[in-house]
Amino acid sequence: MTHQTVSHPARPGLPDDPRANVPAPTPSCPVEITLAALHGRWTTLVIREFLKGDHTFSELREALPDLSDKVLSDRLAHLTNAGILTRHREPGWPPRVHYTLTPHGRSLGPVLQALWDWGSTAPTRHPEDG
Amino acid sequence: MTHQTVSHPARPGLPDDPRANVPAPTPSCPVEITLAALHGRWTTLVIREFLKGDHTFSELREALPDLSDKVLSDRLAHLTNAGILTRHREPGWPPRVHYTLTPHGRSLGPVLQALWDWGSTAPTRHPEDG
DNA sequence: CTGAATCCCTGCCGATACTG
DNA sequence: CAGTATCGGCAGGGATTCAG
Protein backbone atom coordinates (compact mmCIF):
# COMPACT_ATOMS: atom_id res chain seq x y z
CA MET A 1 0.00 0.00 0.00
CA THR A 2 1.20 3.48 -0.67
CA HIS A 3 -0.78 5.37 1.84
CA GLN A 4 -2.60 4.83 5.10
CA THR A 5 -6.32 5.28 5.39
CA VAL A 6 -6.34 6.06 9.08
CA SER A 7 -7.47 9.58 9.85
CA HIS A 8 -4.53 11.93 9.70
CA PRO A 9 -4.66 14.79 12.18
CA ALA A 10 -3.60 18.21 11.04
CA ARG A 11 -0.39 18.05 13.05
CA PRO A 12 1.59 14.84 12.73
CA GLY A 13 2.41 13.19 16.02
CA LEU A 14 -0.57 14.79 17.71
CA PRO A 15 -3.42 12.37 17.19
CA ASP A 16 -6.80 13.54 18.43
CA ASP A 17 -7.23 10.43 20.49
CA PRO A 18 -8.24 10.40 24.15
CA ARG A 19 -5.27 8.19 24.93
CA ALA A 20 -3.02 11.05 23.86
CA ASN A 21 -3.99 13.20 26.83
CA VAL A 22 -1.97 11.43 29.45
CA PRO A 23 -0.40 13.20 32.42
CA ALA A 24 2.26 10.56 32.89
CA PRO A 25 3.92 7.76 30.94
CA THR A 26 1.38 4.94 30.86
CA PRO A 27 1.62 1.52 29.22
CA SER A 28 -1.73 2.05 27.48
CA CYS A 29 -0.35 4.84 25.31
CA PRO A 30 0.29 3.43 21.82
CA VAL A 31 3.62 5.21 21.62
CA GLU A 32 4.70 3.57 24.86
CA ILE A 33 3.48 0.21 23.58
CA THR A 34 5.73 0.46 20.54
CA LEU A 35 8.70 1.73 22.49
CA ALA A 36 8.19 -1.11 24.96
CA ALA A 37 8.19 -3.59 22.08
CA LEU A 38 11.46 -2.18 20.78
CA HIS A 39 12.91 -1.77 24.26
CA GLY A 40 16.23 -3.25 25.21
CA ARG A 41 19.66 -3.47 23.71
CA TRP A 42 19.96 -5.67 20.60
CA THR A 43 16.18 -5.74 20.13
CA THR A 44 16.09 -3.79 16.88
CA LEU A 45 18.99 -5.78 15.47
CA VAL A 46 17.19 -9.02 16.27
CA ILE A 47 14.06 -7.74 14.52
CA ARG A 48 16.23 -6.74 11.60
CA GLU A 49 17.48 -10.30 11.27
CA PHE A 50 13.91 -11.52 11.13
CA LEU A 51 12.99 -9.01 8.45
CA LYS A 52 15.44 -10.94 6.30
CA GLY A 53 13.72 -14.23 7.08
CA ASP A 54 12.97 -16.64 9.89
CA HIS A 55 15.72 -18.14 12.01
CA THR A 56 16.50 -20.72 14.62
CA PHE A 57 18.24 -19.94 17.88
CA SER A 58 21.62 -21.06 16.54
CA GLU A 59 21.27 -19.12 13.32
CA LEU A 60 20.68 -15.99 15.31
CA ARG A 61 23.72 -16.72 17.41
CA GLU A 62 25.80 -16.92 14.25
CA ALA A 63 24.30 -13.75 12.85
CA LEU A 64 24.89 -11.83 16.08
CA PRO A 65 28.00 -13.39 17.65
CA ASP A 66 28.42 -10.72 20.30
CA LEU A 67 24.96 -11.35 21.71
CA SER A 68 24.99 -13.67 24.72
CA ASP A 69 22.68 -16.67 24.97
CA LYS A 70 20.83 -15.24 27.90
CA VAL A 71 20.05 -11.91 26.32
CA LEU A 72 19.12 -13.56 23.03
CA SER A 73 16.77 -15.82 24.93
CA ASP A 74 15.34 -12.79 26.72
CA ARG A 75 14.79 -10.91 23.47
CA LEU A 76 13.12 -13.85 21.77
CA ALA A 77 10.79 -14.36 24.72
CA HIS A 78 10.02 -10.65 24.84
CA LEU A 79 9.27 -10.40 21.13
CA THR A 80 7.23 -13.60 21.18
CA ASN A 81 5.26 -12.24 24.08
CA ALA A 82 4.65 -8.98 22.24
CA GLY A 83 3.13 -10.84 19.31
CA ILE A 84 6.06 -10.02 17.02
CA LEU A 85 7.44 -13.53 16.76
CA THR A 86 5.95 -17.01 16.86
CA ARG A 87 7.83 -19.91 18.36
CA HIS A 88 7.75 -23.33 16.75
CA ARG A 89 9.56 -26.23 18.36
CA GLU A 90 10.45 -28.90 15.86
CA PRO A 91 10.17 -32.49 17.14
CA GLY A 92 13.12 -34.83 16.96
CA TRP A 93 16.78 -34.51 17.75
CA PRO A 94 18.67 -32.29 18.10
CA PRO A 95 16.03 -29.93 19.46
CA ARG A 96 15.55 -26.99 17.12
CA VAL A 97 13.33 -24.01 17.69
CA HIS A 98 12.14 -22.02 14.75
CA TYR A 99 11.12 -18.38 15.14
CA THR A 100 9.07 -16.55 12.55
CA LEU A 101 7.91 -12.98 12.23
CA THR A 102 4.15 -12.56 12.56
CA PRO A 103 2.29 -10.19 10.23
CA HIS A 104 2.12 -7.77 13.13
CA GLY A 105 5.84 -8.07 13.55
CA ARG A 106 6.46 -7.55 9.86
CA SER A 107 4.45 -4.33 10.08
CA LEU A 108 7.28 -2.99 12.23
CA GLY A 109 9.20 -2.47 8.99
CA PRO A 110 7.83 1.03 8.32
CA VAL A 111 8.41 1.94 11.96
CA LEU A 112 12.08 1.01 11.77
CA GLN A 113 12.22 2.82 8.45
CA ALA A 114 10.90 5.99 10.10
CA LEU A 115 13.46 5.66 12.89
CA TRP A 116 16.20 5.13 10.31
CA ASP A 117 15.12 8.09 8.21
CA TRP A 118 15.10 10.53 11.12
CA GLY A 119 18.40 9.28 12.45
CA SER A 120 19.95 9.68 9.01
CA THR A 121 19.08 13.37 8.89
CA ALA A 122 20.76 14.27 12.15
CA PRO A 123 22.04 17.85 12.04
CA THR A 124 24.94 18.56 14.39
CA ARG A 125 25.84 16.00 16.96
CA HIS A 126 26.90 16.93 20.47
CA PRO A 127 28.87 13.96 21.85
CA GLU A 128 28.55 15.06 25.45
CA ASP A 129 25.38 14.39 27.42
CA GLY A 130 25.19 10.68 26.53
CA MET B 1 5.45 17.58 2.99
CA THR B 2 3.22 14.74 1.99
CA HIS B 3 5.72 12.24 0.83
CA GLN B 4 9.39 11.50 1.20
CA THR B 5 11.75 11.54 -1.71
CA VAL B 6 14.43 9.39 -0.13
CA SER B 7 15.00 6.14 -1.96
CA HIS B 8 12.74 3.43 -0.63
CA PRO B 9 14.28 -0.02 -0.51
CA ALA B 10 12.22 -2.98 -1.61
CA ARG B 11 11.84 -4.22 1.96
CA PRO B 12 10.85 -1.55 4.49
CA GLY B 13 13.12 -1.38 7.48
CA LEU B 14 15.99 -2.92 5.57
CA PRO B 15 17.82 0.00 3.98
CA ASP B 16 20.67 -0.98 1.70
CA ASP B 17 23.07 1.23 3.59
CA PRO B 18 26.49 0.10 4.84
CA ARG B 19 25.56 1.33 8.30
CA ALA B 20 22.84 -1.31 8.41
CA ASN B 21 25.31 -4.19 8.52
CA VAL B 22 26.33 -3.85 12.13
CA PRO B 23 27.28 -6.83 14.28
CA ALA B 24 26.42 -5.02 17.50
CA PRO B 25 24.38 -2.04 18.71
CA THR B 26 26.42 1.02 17.79
CA PRO B 27 25.60 4.71 18.30
CA SER B 28 26.34 5.43 14.64
CA CYS B 29 23.36 3.42 13.45
CA PRO B 30 20.56 5.84 12.51
CA VAL B 31 17.99 3.69 14.27
CA GLU B 32 20.05 3.86 17.45
CA ILE B 33 20.42 7.61 17.04
CA THR B 34 16.66 8.07 16.96
CA LEU B 35 16.04 5.69 19.82
CA ALA B 36 18.71 7.52 21.81
CA ALA B 37 16.97 10.82 21.12
CA LEU B 38 13.66 9.41 22.36
CA HIS B 39 15.31 7.55 25.21
CA GLY B 40 14.19 7.97 28.77
CA ARG B 41 10.93 8.09 30.60
CA TRP B 42 8.78 11.17 29.92
CA THR B 43 10.82 12.06 26.83
CA THR B 44 8.07 11.46 24.27
CA LEU B 45 5.53 13.29 26.42
CA VAL B 46 7.84 16.29 26.65
CA ILE B 47 8.26 16.28 22.88
CA ARG B 48 4.50 16.05 22.56
CA GLU B 49 4.09 19.22 24.59
CA PHE B 50 6.46 21.00 22.25
CA LEU B 51 4.57 19.82 19.17
CA LYS B 52 1.73 21.94 20.56
CA GLY B 53 3.99 24.98 20.87
CA ASP B 54 7.00 26.29 22.72
CA HIS B 55 7.13 26.41 26.49
CA THR B 56 9.06 27.70 29.44
CA PHE B 57 10.31 25.52 32.26
CA SER B 58 7.35 26.43 34.46
CA GLU B 59 4.79 25.88 31.75
CA LEU B 60 6.12 22.38 31.28
CA ARG B 61 5.91 21.77 34.99
CA GLU B 62 2.25 22.74 34.89
CA ALA B 63 1.60 20.59 31.83
CA LEU B 64 3.33 17.56 33.38
CA PRO B 65 2.80 17.89 37.14
CA ASP B 66 4.08 14.43 37.96
CA LEU B 67 7.44 15.09 36.32
CA SER B 68 10.12 16.07 38.84
CA ASP B 69 12.27 19.15 38.33
CA LYS B 70 15.42 17.12 37.99
CA VAL B 71 14.14 14.80 35.33
CA LEU B 72 12.51 17.68 33.45
CA SER B 73 15.84 19.47 33.52
CA ASP B 74 17.58 16.32 32.35
CA ARG B 75 15.14 15.86 29.47
CA LEU B 76 15.42 19.46 28.33
CA ALA B 77 19.21 19.28 28.37
CA HIS B 78 19.14 15.98 26.53
CA LEU B 79 16.76 17.22 23.85
CA THR B 80 18.65 20.47 23.48
CA ASN B 81 21.85 18.53 23.08
CA ALA B 82 20.26 16.32 20.45
CA GLY B 83 19.33 19.35 18.36
CA ILE B 84 15.62 18.89 19.01
CA LEU B 85 15.15 21.97 21.19
CA THR B 86 16.76 25.37 21.36
CA ARG B 87 17.22 27.15 24.66
CA HIS B 88 16.64 30.88 24.93
CA ARG B 89 17.22 32.64 28.23
CA GLU B 90 15.19 35.81 28.47
CA PRO B 91 16.94 38.70 30.21
CA GLY B 92 15.31 40.42 33.18
CA TRP B 93 13.57 39.18 36.24
CA PRO B 94 12.33 36.66 37.12
CA PRO B 95 14.66 34.49 35.06
CA ARG B 96 12.69 32.70 32.38
CA VAL B 97 13.98 30.17 29.90
CA HIS B 98 12.13 29.61 26.69
CA TYR B 99 12.44 26.30 24.82
CA THR B 100 11.47 25.95 21.19
CA LEU B 101 11.33 22.99 18.86
CA THR B 102 13.90 23.13 16.06
CA PRO B 103 12.90 22.13 12.51
CA HIS B 104 14.77 18.92 13.11
CA GLY B 105 12.79 18.40 16.26
CA ARG B 106 9.51 19.10 14.52
CA SER B 107 10.40 16.44 11.97
CA LEU B 108 10.00 13.93 14.80
CA GLY B 109 6.24 14.29 14.28
CA PRO B 110 6.02 11.56 11.62
CA VAL B 111 8.24 9.32 13.73
CA LEU B 112 5.94 9.60 16.73
CA GLN B 113 3.03 9.10 14.36
CA ALA B 114 4.56 5.84 13.15
CA LEU B 115 5.09 4.70 16.74
CA TRP B 116 1.50 5.63 17.57
CA ASP B 117 0.08 3.85 14.54
CA TRP B 118 1.87 0.59 15.25
CA GLY B 119 1.00 0.69 18.96
CA SER B 120 -2.64 1.29 18.06
CA THR B 121 -2.84 -1.90 16.03
CA ALA B 122 -1.55 -4.17 18.77
CA PRO B 123 -3.10 -7.64 18.44
CA THR B 124 -3.28 -9.63 21.65
CA ARG B 125 -1.44 -8.35 24.68
CA HIS B 126 0.40 -10.62 27.06
CA PRO B 127 0.68 -8.75 30.35
CA GLU B 128 3.42 -10.98 31.73
CA ASP B 129 7.03 -10.46 30.69
CA GLY B 130 7.06 -6.70 31.31
C1' DC C 1 12.72 30.74 38.45
C1' DT C 2 15.77 27.50 36.63
C1' DG C 3 18.66 23.84 37.21
C1' DA C 4 22.82 21.39 39.36
C1' DA C 5 24.49 18.03 43.27
C1' DT C 6 23.75 14.31 45.99
C1' DC C 7 21.76 9.89 47.67
C1' DC C 8 19.30 5.66 47.15
C1' DC C 9 16.75 2.26 44.87
C1' DT C 10 15.64 -0.35 40.97
C1' DG C 11 16.13 -2.71 36.57
C1' DC C 12 19.02 -3.88 32.66
C1' DC C 13 22.77 -6.39 30.69
C1' DG C 14 26.79 -9.42 30.61
C1' DA C 15 29.26 -13.65 32.19
C1' DT C 16 29.17 -18.03 34.05
C1' DA C 17 27.27 -22.36 35.31
C1' DC C 18 23.62 -25.61 35.02
C1' DT C 19 19.19 -28.38 33.02
C1' DG C 20 15.73 -30.80 29.56
C1' DC D 1 20.49 -27.39 21.02
C1' DA D 2 17.89 -24.25 23.54
C1' DG D 3 17.26 -22.39 27.14
C1' DT D 4 17.08 -21.19 32.85
C1' DA D 5 19.48 -19.66 37.43
C1' DT D 6 22.32 -16.72 39.64
C1' DC D 7 25.41 -12.95 40.54
C1' DG D 8 27.65 -8.34 39.91
C1' DG D 9 28.34 -3.86 37.62
C1' DC D 10 26.34 0.07 36.02
C1' DA D 11 23.18 3.53 34.46
C1' DG D 12 18.37 5.56 34.92
C1' DG D 13 15.18 8.08 37.58
C1' DG D 14 12.90 9.94 41.82
C1' DA D 15 13.24 12.91 46.15
C1' DT D 16 15.57 16.27 48.40
C1' DT D 17 18.65 19.95 48.91
C1' DC D 18 21.56 23.73 47.25
C1' DA D 19 23.03 27.51 43.86
C1' DG D 20 22.88 31.40 40.02
UniProtKB/TrEMBL annotation, chains A, B:
Annotated stretches, region: Disordered: 1-25
Keyword terms: DNA-binding, Transcription, Transcription regulation
Residues covered by the HTH hxlR-type domain: 29-127
InterPro entries for this protein: HTH_HxlR (IPR002577), WH-like_DNA-bd_sf (IPR036388), WH_DNA-bd_sf (IPR036390)
Designated name of the protein: Winged helix-turn-helix transcriptional regulator
Originating organism: Nonomuraea salmonea
Taxonomic lineage: Bacteria, Bacillati, Actinomycetota, Actinomycetes, Streptosporangiales
